[in-house]
Amino acid sequence: MKLPTGPKSAMSIMAIIRIGSDYADADFGLLVRHLKLLDIEISQINASIASSHDPESDGLCDAGEYFIGHGFIAIQRYITATRTGLGISLTDALKVPPIMEGGLSFAAALNAAANYWKHMEEWIETLNGPDGGDLKGNALRTLQQIEAVTPWQDYTCANLLAVLLDGQALELSHLLPVIAEWRDNIITKSVANRGA
């Protein structure tokens, strides 16, 4: 058996099947499992932070940031797989509710968080470069979206997660209801677009 090669034939699109008001969404199921695994680490780190005399020097804050950042990347992958499977552009997908106070959608905040985590070192390299460069384009837009929610400072991913969770325990799986709401809304948008 010859495996497909090339970008077009290598795409994997998992179907989302709506049954009444419920969904059979394999990608969402995998995201749930992934975030719960990350939450095990995050919960252990949070417990260690609570008992540490100096969690920053103990490396606990950096460890928490690492796992939270990777959770944002997994969420971004789900957003991308869902929107492309429905034929919705990134620009349109990131406008789909729920919308946060200030007008930014949760999807846009989550997407920005993932981009921040993936590219933060490149941005710092640019800013600290010999010519004292400025962020431009997608980097600047991403940073502006993050700063609309929380300052760009140490532990930006953890701070952003705390804002998104609005007082809930710092666990990525607490974002799942908002992600499911976004999925419901984007599917409704997709169906409306087809009928238009």
What does this structure look like?
By secondary structure, the protein is mainly alpha-helical. The chain has one domain (23-195). 61% of the residues lie in helices and 4% in strands. The chain is built from seven helices and two strands. Strands 1-2 form a two-stranded antiparallel ribbon. A hairpin with a 2-residue loop joins strand 1 (16-19) and strand 2 (22-25). Helix 2 (60-86) packs across helix 6 and helix 4 packs antiparallel against helix 6 (156-165). The radius of gyration is 18 Å and the shape is globular.
Observed structural traits:
196 residues, mainly alpha, two-stranded antiparallel ribbon, 2 strands, globular
Q: What distance separates the N and C termini?
A: 41 Å
Radius of gyration: 18 Å
Largest sheet: 2 strands, antiparallel
Residue-averaged pLDDT:
89
Number of spatially distinct domains: 1
- Strand residue percentage: under 5%
Global outline: globular
Tally of contiguous helical segments:
7
The percent range for helix content is 55-70%
- pLDDT < 50 stretches: none
Question: Spatial order of the strands in the main sheet?
Answer: 1-2
SS elements, strand count:
2
Helix-strand pattern, N to C? EEHHHHHHH
Structural class estimated from helices and strands: mainly alpha
Concise structural overview:
61% of the residues lie in helices and 4% in strands. It contains 7 helices and 2 strands.
Summarize the topology.
Layout: E1 16-19, E2 22-25, H1 26-51, H2 60-86, H3 90-93, H4 106-127, H5 137-147, H6 156-165, H7 176-195
Antiparallel strand pairs: 1-2
